[in-house]
Write a structure and sequence with these properties.
This protein starts with 15 loop residues before the first helix and ends in a 20-residue tail after the last helix. The chain is elongated, with a radius of gyration of 19 Å. The chain contains 4 helices and no strands. The relative contact order is 0.13. The protein has helices spanning 16-35, 40-66, 71-94, 100-124. It is an all-alpha fold. It has a single domain (14-124), classed as 23S rRNA-intervening sequence (de novo design (two linked rop proteins)).
Amino acid sequence: MSPTPLDRPAPREAGPELLVLQKWEELTSWLLDRTAGWPKCVRFTLTQRIEDHALDVTEMLVLARYDRRRRPRLLHEVNLRLERMRYLLRLARSRNATTRRSFEAALRGIDECGRMIHGWRQTLGKRPRSTLRSFPPANTAAAP
């Protein structure tokens, strides 16, 4: 491994986007190694979906790093992907595709990255508009 150039900050001194990219890259690599050994009965369902989400998050984080205009929306989408991964991992655990130890490590890693992404979003100073529409309360009487 080559030494870090002197004009480049150390990873811990970098901005939130570089820290989360580094952490997510490590987690994705670890996760891909683990899912490769999962049983055949979940390989083309849960394994594929989890791996696809992990790789999609990688792509979205890179895009968010360089595309300021789309950054809030991309980070919002990343949070949704992380939540999907949590549910898929729970399903994999319930099917005994993964060990309890690996399951917990994966969820801890996803949680840590989720917190880092939240911090990144906070530094932006705004959040993307919700895609949910608000409806009037059901028990409102019409005005006379």
